[in-house]
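Q&A log
Question type: sequence-to-structure
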Amino acid sequence: MMVVLGNIVMLIYLTCLAVISIYCLMQFHLLLHYLTKNKSEELISEPVASEDLPFVTVQLPLYNEYFVVNRLIDNITQLDYPKDRFEIQVIDDSTDESMDLAKTKVEEYQAQGYHIELVTRSDRVGYKAGALKAAMSKVRGEFIAIFDADFLPEKDFLKKTLPYFSKYEKLAVVQTRWGHINQNHSLLTKVQAFQLNVHFTVEQKGRQLADYFLQFNGTAGVWRKAAIEDAGGWEADTLTEDLDLSYRAQLKGWKIIFLQDTIAPAELPSEMLGLKSQQHRWMKGGAETAKKLLPKVWASPINFISKIHGSIHLLGSSVFLSIFLLGVFSVPLIFVVLPFSATVMNTFLFSTLLIFIIYYTANVGKAWEGQSKLMSFVKFIFIFPIFLSLSMGLSFHNSIAVLQGYLGRKSAFIRTPKFNIKKITDKVRDKKYHNYTISKVTMMEGALSLYFLLAIIAGLTTGNLAMVPFHIMLFFGYGAIFFFTIKHLSAQ
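Response status: OK
Response body:
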């Protein structure tokens, strides 16, 4: 019986390791496209007469954004674009006094001659997707720029993005790169920027250069209205309505362009509770979208390698299931002599090396702009193991979200609180949007931290040291996630 159980544990562990390794190889394949193909963006610098500029609708979907709503509207009205050639829709589903702030701002700018209106609903059916869908009937623009509440686009954003639509007839979206206005606020924001820099370089640009599926990231991008309508419009059956619509549009023959050098600054979640709510939405929505669209991807006439990369993209959140199970089932293997332990360890190290190279490429000289290569490398060496550990520590939380997505368990669109955090000295000053309690997931994260502490002790006691570095990272990762969750809960 023990032999059978041992074989089952080994099979699960090896399967998870194989899944993670394949994912890392596919990410590295994107890196090769990113490094070996022409990354330059065609700059369209010819001035366009004001009367020839297309009419644009700028949509600002909001829900209880008390701390940033004024900042957002003020910023959008400063766009360098003729007042008579764009309109602003403040699409507000708020249930608190932030609605009053939005209304006051809208009236202020209406008095200054801006085409700006407050679009409200009597309910939150469909959440963000539902709000965007409801507002479509009022859209006058041929193109629609969308910004979430935490974004502060540069004044020339529209003039940098819109010319691409006249150049490419079947262009659905121009997506820009996210910047991070509070990247240096804390270790938590540094780690988030570290991860996002990979998505907004190697992943997005690599996919574009290889002509694979890309995605609209929900904000800081411009849609062609006709593409939204042709793809079936906004749908609220997943929590990642942006990914869903992106794929449906591309399956209809539309294209997406990503501008790596056009940056839209934004605020990263500054506390663990907000990060967890954001991760839950992204991970669960990714699983829901994969379940919905994978059959359509494979039924489409696109080439085989594009289908493979599209599938890996849609299944990206599911990798956390393998990371979680790999960690849990690695502990019993302390007491088992693997017949091919060297191969297993080399596979793990090889996958880690691939990730190291990918993150090095995206972050050294990118995330630490204005600093020397040496200082960027020193910071990278410090952040990389912390990033890996915290990613492992989030794997249980994210796995629950992924399973809920595949099982069809519905949940609300939980907003990520923004607190107008810019500088290191800025604090989360108000408990207004903190309504969390200690969950079973949080308690399990604490228990998993103790589980891997015992694994470390067991490895040292038995002399089986191969897994000890891995278990140290898991202990630190789960412990840090548990600690910061409790810390930020206690700050309520």
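Response note: The mean pLDDT is 90.
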